[in-house]
UniProtKB/TrEMBL annotation:
The keyword Protein transport does not apply. Belongs to the bacterial solute-binding protein ModA family. Residues 1-19 form the signal peptide. PANTHER family: MOLYBDATE-BINDING PERIPLASMIC PROTEIN, TUNGSTATE_MOLYBDATE_CHROMATE-BINDING PROTEIN MODA. This is Molybdate ABC transporter substrate-binding protein. It comes from the Bacteria. SUPFAM superfamilies: Periplasmic binding protein-like II. It comes from Pseudomarimonas salicorniae. Keywords: Metal-binding, Signal.
Amino acid sequence: MRVLALILLACCLPGSVTAGEVLAGVASNFAAPMQALARAFEARSGHRVSVALGSSGALYAQVRHGAPFAVLLSADAEIPERLEVEGLAVPGTRFTYARGRLALWSADPRRLIADGEALRSGDFLRLAIANPRHAPYGMAAREVLDALDIELGREQTLVQGESIAQAYQFVASGNAELGFVALSQVWLDGSLRSGSAWIVPETLHAPIEQQVVLLNAGAGQPAARDLLAFLAGDEAQAIIARYGYGRAP
């Protein structure tokens, strides 16, 4: 009778029967909004979210080597599409959850002016970017430098981080005076959290269309599908917009 009572009690608890855990691979630029999204999703659904951060390229390599991610939130559209084509993701589940914005950022609140003149002036020794081979934001940064015809002088160094998170750390720690970062890393509710920044016009680089996809490991997990549905909804999109992302179409 005691066992039966415990079973009946468990069945009456909200979310106790259907609650699950989702392991999500998440691009580093999306770390801050993902924390807020996970809290909101867990409160709404009863599911739990565990997050593994990294560059999109590194996360892709981990999936190919058997990482048990249920969903992948990439910083681009190419990697989710590639996973779909390679049979590692569930067809028809891929969609854009955010449009990324790039910023040239300095920890010094007096260094930058609105039109990015700090780049043209050459008044810096180190410029940090994410590795363009692995990180879509690094690729966008490289496109901006090419579009503006910026070439570093002899005494200047381009410092590459393996992810946008590492590029941000180079600037935050003072190891680089300037760096191209994701706007979401320095922005909240319509204003900069610290330092100074030039929000790079989207005309200077290809669109940063960030897509999510359900991976094969999550195909049979209701919690993973619920997370995708949540990301597409108005509540999640409002949270994402707070961090400077463009709304998904």
